[in-house]
């Protein structure tokens, strides 16, 4: 499956049966391909990389590439699987760091002076729950100053800390003094801002950043075009498939704000994508045809914990032609009246016909299945949505799966009131909708119950 229109970027998308569509970004490091021609020999096995790309991440590897321009690089005292893990983390495959890989990546990043990878590990550790002294030791061992400062700021005078373990004795004298002073009431150190802060290093030409990239507004930054090509199909086409490969200036189809966000997101230490900056990064990823950035942004937009309204997520996906992901986005809407409220947004008319049709599809599902909000099962504690409701009369113990049973009961007890559904009449059985004569649907834990004048009770 491919998404995009006739005049828009076309990005490959694979739909998995169990979830939403996802964008494929795969790299086979075991074979040379395109610019990845420099072999790394690890434990007798070869991995092929682009020397321009790894030079952006590691000054150590860059120096080796310059010293040995025509030979394979032999990486001693490291494991093959560990190097593969490192490559998948720093390349557009964008592999996430977890509680196991962080201990693999930290020594590699430290030895090869990969500040960008150290930063990614540091961000993971900041948000990961591990013992306090373990976190302090890691910050001290690998010079993660931002993590160390945050640990010191968490401390309070007279805090109880286990000072008998091996981690304490492995701390440097400098950190021991900081802990001592903090325990005795010294003020907390100032918090260190999270990098990257700006693009100052890309405002002048260097041996590594030798090509100019110009935004539509005229702003120029200097980059390594081979590195950018690894993240952008637009640059890949210009560099490897056009005859004008010797050009030292490239024009970018982005505004200055989008280009700045794009460069900060792909270059180490890679700007962390959040609700505040996802807009320009996603638009830049679309204009530059960057599957890796589109996948990363789409993953964030489809996370329930992301602090963005469903309408904002829908608008961003629609503007970037990620239409196959819109149904998964709209599945977060559980009440018909909320979907109707989305049609009253001031930017609703900016949505494409396909996005609005998807909204109607979601509305039809919500109206067809009353009381189907996700809930937690009393027995297994699983959080899921029922596929149907069985109604039971408490008097005669008669069971029925007829959805019209509740409608008929409510109609006999009074006139239905469809609150918050402007202009939609005759909708019955909506979760939480109040019926005349005391009829209502309520969801309590894993059980869906109805109360009305006839005393009909429905069980899940």
Structure description:
InterPro entries: BTB/POZ_dom, SKP1/BTB/POZ_sf. This is BTB domain-containing protein. With about 450 residues, the chain is α+β, with helices and mostly antiparallel strands. It folds into 4 domains: about 40-185, Potassium Channel Kv1.1, Chain A (2-Layer Sandwich); about 195-305, 2-Layer Sandwich (Potassium Channel Kv1.1, Chain A); about 310-370; about 385-420 and about 430-460, no CATH class. It is about 40% helix and about 10% strand. The strands form 6 sheets. The chain has a 3-stranded antiparallel beta sheet. Strands 5-4-6 form a 3-stranded mixed beta sheet. A 3-stranded mixed beta sheet has the order 8-7-9. Strand 12 and strand 13 (about 400) form a beta hairpin. Helix 6 runs antiparallel to helix 7 (about 145-155). The longest helix is centred in the C-terminal third of the chain and has 16 residues, at about 355-370. The protein is globular, with a radius of gyration of 28 Å. It starts with a strand and ends with a strand. Mean pLDDT is about 80; it is low at about 1-20 and about 410-460.
Determine the fraction of residues in helical runs and give it as a percent range.
Answer: 25-40%
Q: What would you report as the Rg, rounded to the nearest angstrom? A: 28 Å
Shape: globular
Helix run count: 19
**Spatial order of strands in the largest sheet:** 1-2-3
Unreliable runs: 1-18, 409-460
What is the CATH class of the largest domain? Alpha Beta
Number of discrete domains: 4
Domain BTB: 36-129, 209-305
Pfam families: BTB (PF00651)
Protein name: BTB domain-containing protein
Organism: Mesorhabditis belari
């Amino acid at each position: 499956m491919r998404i995009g229109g006739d005049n828009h970027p076309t990005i490959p998308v694979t739909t998995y049966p169990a979830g939403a569509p996802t964008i494929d970004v795969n790299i086979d490091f075991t074979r040379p391909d395109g610019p990845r021609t420099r072999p790394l020999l690890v434990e007798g096995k070869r991995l092929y990389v682009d020397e321009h790309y790894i030079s952006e991440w590691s000054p150590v590897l860059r120096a080796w590439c310059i010293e040995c321009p025509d030979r394979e690089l032999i990486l001693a005292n490291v494991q093959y699987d560990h190097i593969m893990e490192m490559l998948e983390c720093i390349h557009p495959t964008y592999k996430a760091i977890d509680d196991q890989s962080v201990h693999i990546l930290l020594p590699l990043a430290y030895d090869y002076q990969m500040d960008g990878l150290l930063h990614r590990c540091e961000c993971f550790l900041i948000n990961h729950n591990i013992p306090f002294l373990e976190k302090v030791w890691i910050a001290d061992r690998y010079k993660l100053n931002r993590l160390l400062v945050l640990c010191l700021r968490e401390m309070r005078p007279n805090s109880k800390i286990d000072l008998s373990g091996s981690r304490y004795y492995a701390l440097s004298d400098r950190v021991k003094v900081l802990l001592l002073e903090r325990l005795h009431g010294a003020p907390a150190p100032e918090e260190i801002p999270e990098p990257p802060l700006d693009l100052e290093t890309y405002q002048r030409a260097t041996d590594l950043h030798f090509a100019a990239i110009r935004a539509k507004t005229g702003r120029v930054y200097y980059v390594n075009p081979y590195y950018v090509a690894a993240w952008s199909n637009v640059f890949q086409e210009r560099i490897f498939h056009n005859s004008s490969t010797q050009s030292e200036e490239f024009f970018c189809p982005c505004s200055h704000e989008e280009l700045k966000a794009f460069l900060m997101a792909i270059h180490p230490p890679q700007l962390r994508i959040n609700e505040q900056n996802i807009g320009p990064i996603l638009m830049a990823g679309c204009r530059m045809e960057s599957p890796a950035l589109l996948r990363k942004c789409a993953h964030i937009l489809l996370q329930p914990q992301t602090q963005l309204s469903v309408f904002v997520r829908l608008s961003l996906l629609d503007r970037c032609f990620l239409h196959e992901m819109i149904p998964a986005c709209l599945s977060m809407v559980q009440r018909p009246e909320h979907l109707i409220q989305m049609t009253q947004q001031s930017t609703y008319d900016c949505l494409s016909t396909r996005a609005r049709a998807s909204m109607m599809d979601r509305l039809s599902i919500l109206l067809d299945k009353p009381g189907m909000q996700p809930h937690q099962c009393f027995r297994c504690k699983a959080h899921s949505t029922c596929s149907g409701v069985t109604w039971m009369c408490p008097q005669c113990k008669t069971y029925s799966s007829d959805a019209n049973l509740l409608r008929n009961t409510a109609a006999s007890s009074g006139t239905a009131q469809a609150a918050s559904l402007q202009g939609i009449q005759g909708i019955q059985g909506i979760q939480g909708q109040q019926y005349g004569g005391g009829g209502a649907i309520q969801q309590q834990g894993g059980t869906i119950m109805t109360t009305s004048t006839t005393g009909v009770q429905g069980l899940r």
